Amino acid sequence: MKFSLTAKRLPFVAVLSAMTIFSMKIHAQNDVSAQMTSQACPQEFYSLPLFPDPKMCQVFAPELPASLTYHASTDQQSALGFYTEKLGQADHVKTLKGRIMMQYDNAKKIIILSKDGAGTQIDVLVKS
After folding, report:
1. DSSP states of 80-108
2. Average pLDDT of 101-105?
3. What is the pTM of this model?
């Protein structure tokens, strides 16, 4: 059987290709969501406190350098105030693309606050 790409078959090939790509994308998303299940939230992470009543905690790297991300039902400024109150003034605070990055202990501890719906996503990175 000989196959040739003609003007009649081009739409069929385009639809088939799009369906294949869509299927691959859905499969990849399902794989990622299966690997990234939220965990019970700890009170602190490497001596860094978490905002009260944290949700959807995910430890990405439990060993140093370690990272954790979670959601707090508060705005960025309140989260910034919480960390400033608990840890003192950060060595360096920078706002970039709507995210607030706080660095402590010569950038060995980094907290990133990102607007997330009605709350804030908080990423905690501990290098050592």
Report:
1. HHHHHHHH-S-SEEEEETTEEEEEETTTT
2. 97
3. 0.70
